[in-house]
Amino acid sequence: MQLNRDELLRAYRDMCLIRQFEERVHAEFATGDIPGFVHLYAGEEASAVGVCMDLTERDTIASTHRGHGHCIAKGCDVDGMMAEIYGRKSGLCGGKGGSMHIADLDRGMLGANGIVGGGAPLACGAALSAKTLKTGAVAVAFGGDGASNQGTTAEAMNLASVWRLPVIFVLEDNGYAESTASAWSVGGDPVKRAEGFGIPATRVDGHDFFAVHEAAREAVARARAGEGPSFLHLKLARYFGHFEGDGMTYRAPDEVARLRAEKDCLKLFRRKVSEAGLLEGAALDAIEGEVATLIEGAVRRAKADAMPEPADLLTDVYVSY
Ligand SMILES: Cc1ncc(C[n+]2csc(CCOP(=O)(O)OP(=O)(O)O)c2C)c(N)n1
Ligand SMILES: [Mg+2]
Prior knowledge:
Elements: H1 5-30, H2 45-52, E1 60-62, H3 68-73, H4 78-85, H5 119-133, E2 139-144, H6 151-162, E3 167-173, E4 176-177, E5 180-181, H7 182-185, H8 190-196, E6 201-205, H9 209-224, E7 230-235, H10 255-262, H11 265-275, H12 281-304
Parallel strand pairs: 1-2, 2-3, 3-7, 6-7
Antiparallel strand pairs: 4-5
Helix pairs in contact: 1-2, 1-11, 1-12, 2-9, 4-12, 5-6
Protein backbone atom coordinates (compact mmCIF):
# COMPACT_ATOMS: atom_id res chain seq x y z
CA MET A 1 0.00 0.00 0.00
CA GLN A 2 1.43 3.36 -1.02
CA LEU A 3 -0.52 5.60 1.36
CA ASN A 4 0.90 6.92 4.61
CA ARG A 5 -0.95 6.96 7.93
CA ASP A 6 -2.41 10.44 7.51
CA GLU A 7 -3.68 9.61 4.03
CA LEU A 8 -5.26 6.37 5.24
CA LEU A 9 -6.99 8.22 8.07
CA ARG A 10 -8.22 10.86 5.62
CA ALA A 11 -9.57 8.18 3.29
CA TYR A 12 -11.47 6.45 6.10
CA ARG A 13 -12.77 9.77 7.43
CA ASP A 14 -14.10 10.79 4.00
CA MET A 15 -15.76 7.41 3.46
CA CYS A 16 -17.36 7.59 6.92
CA LEU A 17 -18.46 11.14 6.27
CA ILE A 18 -20.23 10.09 3.09
CA ARG A 19 -21.83 7.03 4.73
CA GLN A 20 -23.10 8.92 7.78
CA PHE A 21 -24.19 11.90 5.69
CA GLU A 22 -26.27 9.61 3.48
CA GLU A 23 -27.72 7.52 6.33
CA ARG A 24 -28.78 10.76 8.03
CA VAL A 25 -30.27 12.32 4.90
CA HIS A 26 -32.20 9.05 4.43
CA ALA A 27 -33.67 9.39 7.94
CA GLU A 28 -34.33 13.12 7.63
CA PHE A 29 -35.96 12.80 4.21
CA ALA A 30 -38.48 10.39 5.74
CA THR A 31 -39.64 13.15 8.10
CA GLY A 32 -40.72 15.27 5.13
CA ASP A 33 -38.42 18.20 6.00
CA ILE A 34 -36.21 17.91 2.92
CA PRO A 35 -37.71 19.27 -0.32
CA GLY A 36 -37.21 17.86 -3.80
CA PHE A 37 -35.57 14.68 -5.00
CA VAL A 38 -32.69 12.90 -3.25
CA HIS A 39 -30.53 10.07 -4.67
CA LEU A 40 -28.23 8.52 -2.08
CA TYR A 41 -24.67 7.33 -2.65
CA ALA A 42 -24.24 5.01 0.38
CA GLY A 43 -22.38 1.83 -0.62
CA GLU A 44 -20.34 3.54 -3.34
CA GLU A 45 -17.95 5.51 -1.06
CA ALA A 46 -14.76 3.73 -2.16
CA SER A 47 -15.27 5.09 -5.67
CA ALA A 48 -15.57 8.79 -4.84
CA VAL A 49 -12.83 8.71 -2.22
CA GLY A 50 -10.46 6.41 -4.11
CA VAL A 51 -10.76 8.46 -7.29
CA CYS A 52 -10.50 11.90 -5.65
CA MET A 53 -7.63 10.93 -3.33
CA ASP A 54 -4.88 12.16 -5.68
CA LEU A 55 -6.78 15.18 -7.00
CA THR A 56 -6.03 18.73 -5.88
CA GLU A 57 -8.31 21.78 -5.75
CA ARG A 58 -7.29 22.85 -9.25
CA ASP A 59 -8.51 19.50 -10.64
CA THR A 60 -12.19 19.27 -11.49
CA ILE A 61 -14.93 16.67 -11.28
CA ALA A 62 -18.29 16.46 -13.03
CA SER A 63 -20.79 14.56 -10.93
CA THR A 64 -24.20 12.96 -11.39
CA HIS A 65 -27.68 13.07 -9.82
CA ARG A 66 -26.16 10.81 -7.10
CA GLY A 67 -23.56 13.42 -6.22
CA HIS A 68 -23.23 13.83 -2.42
CA GLY A 69 -20.30 11.40 -2.21
CA HIS A 70 -18.42 13.11 -5.02
CA CYS A 71 -18.91 16.51 -3.34
CA ILE A 72 -17.59 15.29 0.01
CA ALA A 73 -14.62 13.48 -1.56
CA LYS A 74 -13.71 16.65 -3.48
CA GLY A 75 -13.70 18.67 -0.27
CA CYS A 76 -17.05 20.49 -0.31
CA ASP A 77 -18.15 21.88 3.03
CA VAL A 78 -20.54 19.47 4.72
CA ASP A 79 -22.52 22.23 6.48
CA GLY A 80 -22.97 23.99 3.13
CA MET A 81 -24.09 20.74 1.49
CA MET A 82 -26.61 19.87 4.20
CA ALA A 83 -28.05 23.41 4.12
CA GLU A 84 -28.29 23.17 0.32
CA ILE A 85 -30.19 19.90 0.55
CA TYR A 86 -32.58 21.53 3.03
CA GLY A 87 -32.98 24.48 0.60
CA ARG A 88 -31.55 27.00 3.07
CA LYS A 89 -29.78 30.30 2.54
CA SER A 90 -26.36 29.17 3.78
CA GLY A 91 -26.36 26.28 1.30
CA LEU A 92 -23.49 25.98 -1.17
CA CYS A 93 -25.77 27.35 -3.91
CA GLY A 94 -27.79 29.63 -1.65
CA GLY A 95 -30.41 26.91 -1.18
CA LYS A 96 -31.58 27.30 -4.76
CA GLY A 97 -30.10 24.13 -6.23
CA GLY A 98 -30.83 21.33 -3.79
CA SER A 99 -29.37 17.84 -3.78
CA MET A 100 -29.19 17.42 -7.55
CA HIS A 101 -27.44 20.72 -8.31
CA ILE A 102 -24.80 21.12 -5.63
CA ALA A 103 -21.72 22.80 -7.10
CA ASP A 104 -18.64 24.40 -5.62
CA LEU A 105 -16.25 25.75 -8.22
CA ASP A 106 -13.73 26.79 -5.53
CA ARG A 107 -13.28 23.08 -4.81
CA GLY A 108 -13.28 22.05 -8.48
CA MET A 109 -16.73 20.48 -8.07
CA LEU A 110 -18.41 21.41 -11.35
CA GLY A 111 -21.79 20.24 -10.17
CA ALA A 112 -24.18 17.40 -9.55
CA ASN A 113 -26.22 16.93 -12.69
CA GLY A 114 -29.83 15.99 -13.31
CA ILE A 115 -29.01 15.07 -16.90
CA VAL A 116 -27.86 11.46 -17.14
CA GLY A 117 -24.67 11.45 -19.23
CA GLY A 118 -24.33 15.23 -18.84
CA GLY A 119 -21.05 15.07 -16.92
CA ALA A 120 -18.72 13.60 -19.55
CA PRO A 121 -18.88 16.55 -21.99
CA LEU A 122 -18.44 19.02 -19.10
CA ALA A 123 -15.33 17.20 -17.89
CA CYS A 124 -13.97 17.23 -21.45
CA GLY A 125 -14.51 21.00 -21.55
CA ALA A 126 -12.63 21.42 -18.27
CA ALA A 127 -9.86 19.12 -19.53
CA LEU A 128 -9.60 21.01 -22.83
CA SER A 129 -9.28 24.27 -20.94
CA ALA A 130 -6.59 22.77 -18.67
CA LYS A 131 -4.70 21.45 -21.67
CA THR A 132 -4.98 24.73 -23.61
CA LEU A 133 -3.95 26.88 -20.64
CA LYS A 134 -1.30 24.32 -19.61
CA THR A 135 -2.45 24.32 -15.98
CA GLY A 136 -1.60 20.65 -15.46
CA ALA A 137 -5.10 20.04 -14.09
CA VAL A 138 -7.03 16.82 -14.57
CA ALA A 139 -10.80 16.44 -14.97
CA VAL A 140 -12.91 13.47 -13.89
CA ALA A 141 -16.33 12.53 -15.23
CA PHE A 142 -18.35 10.27 -12.95
CA GLY A 143 -21.24 8.44 -14.59
CA GLY A 144 -23.41 5.41 -14.01
CA ASP A 145 -24.15 2.31 -16.08
CA GLY A 146 -27.23 4.13 -17.40
CA ALA A 147 -25.11 7.12 -18.41
CA SER A 148 -22.66 4.81 -20.16
CA ASN A 149 -25.33 4.11 -22.78
CA GLN A 150 -25.92 7.80 -23.57
CA GLY A 151 -24.63 9.30 -26.80
CA THR A 152 -23.08 12.19 -24.86
CA THR A 153 -20.74 9.75 -23.12
CA ALA A 154 -19.62 8.15 -26.38
CA GLU A 155 -19.10 11.54 -28.07
CA ALA A 156 -17.12 12.82 -25.09
CA MET A 157 -14.92 9.72 -25.08
CA ASN A 158 -14.20 10.13 -28.77
CA LEU A 159 -13.23 13.81 -28.35
CA ALA A 160 -11.10 12.97 -25.31
CA SER A 161 -9.27 10.41 -27.39
CA VAL A 162 -8.63 12.51 -30.50
CA TRP A 163 -7.65 15.59 -28.44
CA ARG A 164 -5.70 13.50 -25.88
CA LEU A 165 -7.46 15.29 -23.06
CA PRO A 166 -6.38 14.96 -19.40
CA VAL A 167 -9.71 13.41 -18.44
CA ILE A 168 -10.72 10.26 -16.58
CA PHE A 169 -14.09 8.61 -17.19
CA VAL A 170 -15.28 6.75 -14.11
CA LEU A 171 -18.14 4.35 -14.73
CA GLU A 172 -19.84 3.64 -11.41
CA ASP A 173 -21.67 0.46 -12.35
CA ASN A 174 -24.09 -0.17 -9.49
CA GLY A 175 -26.08 -2.69 -11.49
CA TYR A 176 -29.14 -0.54 -12.13
CA ALA A 177 -30.33 2.52 -14.01
CA GLU A 178 -33.42 3.36 -11.96
CA SER A 179 -35.01 -0.14 -11.96
CA THR A 180 -33.33 -1.39 -15.15
CA ALA A 181 -30.63 -3.99 -14.54
CA SER A 182 -27.34 -3.26 -16.30
CA ALA A 183 -26.97 -7.01 -16.90
CA TRP A 184 -29.43 -6.71 -19.77
CA SER A 185 -29.25 -3.01 -20.67
CA VAL A 186 -25.51 -2.55 -21.20
CA GLY A 187 -24.39 -4.24 -24.42
CA GLY A 188 -20.91 -5.71 -24.65
CA ASP A 189 -18.11 -4.82 -22.29
CA PRO A 190 -17.66 -1.17 -21.19
CA VAL A 191 -13.89 -1.68 -20.98
CA LYS A 192 -13.83 -2.80 -24.62
CA ARG A 193 -16.03 0.15 -25.60
CA ALA A 194 -13.41 2.51 -24.14
CA GLU A 195 -10.60 0.57 -25.79
CA GLY A 196 -12.50 0.95 -29.05
CA PHE A 197 -11.92 4.69 -28.69
CA GLY A 198 -8.23 4.05 -28.04
CA ILE A 199 -8.59 4.85 -24.34
CA PRO A 200 -6.66 2.74 -21.79
CA ALA A 201 -9.31 1.08 -19.65
CA THR A 202 -9.46 -1.17 -16.63
CA ARG A 203 -12.11 -2.84 -14.46
CA VAL A 204 -11.74 -2.97 -10.69
CA ASP A 205 -13.77 -3.97 -7.66
CA GLY A 206 -15.47 -0.71 -6.69
CA HIS A 207 -15.96 -1.92 -3.11
CA ASP A 208 -12.21 -2.04 -2.60
CA PHE A 209 -10.84 1.44 -1.86
CA PHE A 210 -7.27 0.29 -2.46
CA ALA A 211 -8.02 -1.19 -5.88
CA VAL A 212 -9.90 1.94 -6.91
CA HIS A 213 -7.16 4.24 -5.64
CA GLU A 214 -4.42 2.32 -7.40
CA ALA A 215 -6.25 2.43 -10.74
CA ALA A 216 -7.15 6.10 -10.28
CA ARG A 217 -3.59 7.01 -9.33
CA GLU A 218 -2.33 5.49 -12.58
CA ALA A 219 -5.00 7.34 -14.58
CA VAL A 220 -4.22 10.69 -12.89
CA ALA A 221 -0.51 10.21 -13.56
CA ARG A 222 -1.24 9.43 -17.22
CA ALA A 223 -3.37 12.57 -17.55
CA ARG A 224 -0.79 14.78 -15.83
CA ALA A 225 1.96 13.40 -18.06
CA GLY A 226 0.01 14.55 -21.13
CA GLU A 227 -0.75 10.99 -22.19
CA GLY A 228 -4.49 11.52 -22.54
CA PRO A 229 -7.67 9.97 -21.14
CA SER A 230 -8.35 6.83 -19.12
CA PHE A 231 -11.46 4.84 -18.33
CA LEU A 232 -12.27 3.00 -15.08
CA HIS A 233 -15.12 0.51 -14.83
CA LEU A 234 -16.00 0.13 -11.15
CA LYS A 235 -18.41 -2.61 -10.11
CA LEU A 236 -20.19 -1.54 -6.94
CA ALA A 237 -23.61 -1.28 -5.30
CA ARG A 238 -25.98 1.30 -3.87
CA TYR A 239 -27.65 0.55 -0.55
CA PHE A 240 -30.76 2.70 -0.90
CA GLY A 241 -33.32 2.97 -3.67
CA HIS A 242 -32.76 4.84 -6.91
CA PHE A 243 -34.33 7.84 -5.19
CA GLU A 244 -35.70 8.27 -1.67
CA GLY A 245 -39.17 6.78 -1.83
CA ASP A 246 -38.26 4.00 -4.29
CA GLY A 247 -39.90 0.74 -3.09
CA MET A 248 -37.10 -1.31 -4.72
CA THR A 249 -39.47 -4.06 -5.83
CA TYR A 250 -36.97 -4.93 -8.59
CA ARG A 251 -34.35 -6.13 -6.08
CA ALA A 252 -34.30 -9.42 -4.22
CA PRO A 253 -35.62 -9.00 -0.64
CA ASP A 254 -32.25 -9.87 0.91
CA GLU A 255 -30.05 -8.23 -1.73
CA VAL A 256 -29.07 -5.11 0.20
CA ALA A 257 -28.64 -6.94 3.51
CA ARG A 258 -26.24 -9.33 1.78
CA LEU A 259 -24.31 -6.49 0.16
CA ARG A 260 -23.99 -4.67 3.47
CA ALA A 261 -22.77 -7.84 5.16
CA GLU A 262 -20.36 -9.01 2.47
CA LYS A 263 -19.28 -6.05 0.34
CA ASP A 264 -19.31 -2.99 2.59
CA CYS A 265 -16.34 -0.85 1.48
CA LEU A 266 -15.89 0.59 4.98
CA LYS A 267 -15.72 -2.84 6.60
CA LEU A 268 -13.37 -4.02 3.87
CA PHE A 269 -11.11 -1.00 4.47
CA ARG A 270 -11.07 -1.65 8.23
CA ARG A 271 -10.21 -5.30 7.70
CA LYS A 272 -7.36 -4.53 5.27
CA VAL A 273 -5.68 -1.84 7.37
CA SER A 274 -6.05 -3.93 10.54
CA GLU A 275 -4.62 -7.07 8.95
CA ALA A 276 -1.69 -5.07 7.55
CA GLY A 277 -1.14 -3.47 10.97
CA LEU A 278 -1.48 0.04 9.48
CA LEU A 279 -4.25 1.52 11.64
CA GLU A 280 -5.71 0.48 15.00
CA GLY A 281 -9.42 -0.05 15.57
CA ALA A 282 -9.43 2.71 18.20
CA ALA A 283 -8.25 5.32 15.69
CA LEU A 284 -10.97 4.26 13.24
CA ASP A 285 -13.63 4.29 15.98
CA ALA A 286 -12.54 7.79 16.97
CA ILE A 287 -13.05 8.98 13.39
CA GLU A 288 -16.58 7.55 13.36
CA GLY A 289 -17.34 9.49 16.54
CA GLU A 290 -15.95 12.77 15.17
CA VAL A 291 -17.92 12.36 11.97
CA ALA A 292 -21.15 11.71 13.90
CA THR A 293 -20.69 15.02 15.76
CA LEU A 294 -20.03 16.83 12.50
CA ILE A 295 -23.18 15.47 10.85
CA GLU A 296 -25.28 16.25 13.91
CA GLY A 297 -24.08 19.87 13.80
CA ALA A 298 -24.68 20.14 10.05
CA VAL A 299 -28.30 19.01 10.39
CA ARG A 300 -28.90 21.29 13.38
CA ARG A 301 -27.47 24.34 11.59
CA ALA A 302 -29.32 23.58 8.34
CA LYS A 303 -32.68 23.30 10.12
CA ALA A 304 -32.08 26.56 12.00
CA ASP A 305 -31.13 28.48 8.85
CA ALA A 306 -33.54 30.67 6.88
CA MET A 307 -35.03 29.89 3.47
CA PRO A 308 -33.95 32.10 0.55
CA GLU A 309 -36.00 35.28 0.06
CA PRO A 310 -38.27 35.69 -2.99
CA ALA A 311 -35.83 38.39 -4.24
CA ASP A 312 -33.03 35.79 -4.25
CA LEU A 313 -34.75 34.24 -7.27
CA LEU A 314 -33.29 37.02 -9.39
CA THR A 315 -29.69 36.64 -8.26
CA ASP A 316 -27.11 34.14 -9.66
CA VAL A 317 -28.90 34.10 -13.00
CA TYR A 318 -26.09 35.59 -15.09
CA VAL A 319 -22.35 35.29 -14.60
CA SER A 320 -20.47 38.58 -14.57
CA TYR A 321 -16.95 38.56 -15.96
C1 LIG B 1 -30.95 12.40 -20.23
C2 LIG B 1 -31.75 11.76 -19.11
N1 LIG B 1 -32.47 10.65 -19.36
C3 LIG B 1 -33.21 10.08 -18.38
C4 LIG B 1 -33.21 10.64 -17.12
C5 LIG B 1 -34.01 9.97 -15.99
N2 LIG B 1 -33.08 9.27 -15.10
C6 LIG B 1 -32.62 9.84 -13.96
S1 LIG B 1 -31.52 8.88 -13.16
C7 LIG B 1 -31.66 7.65 -14.31
C8 LIG B 1 -30.87 6.39 -14.19
C9 LIG B 1 -29.40 6.61 -14.22
O1 LIG B 1 -28.75 5.41 -14.00
P1 LIG B 1 -27.20 5.32 -13.82
O2 LIG B 1 -26.52 6.18 -14.85
O3 LIG B 1 -26.84 3.91 -13.79
O4 LIG B 1 -26.94 6.03 -12.42
P2 LIG B 1 -27.39 5.52 -10.96
O5 LIG B 1 -28.73 6.12 -10.69
O6 LIG B 1 -27.41 4.06 -10.97
O7 LIG B 1 -26.34 6.08 -10.05
C10 LIG B 1 -32.55 8.02 -15.32
C11 LIG B 1 -32.89 7.18 -16.47
C12 LIG B 1 -32.45 11.80 -16.90
N3 LIG B 1 -32.40 12.39 -15.70
N4 LIG B 1 -31.70 12.34 -17.90
MG1 LIG C 1 -26.53 2.68 -12.18
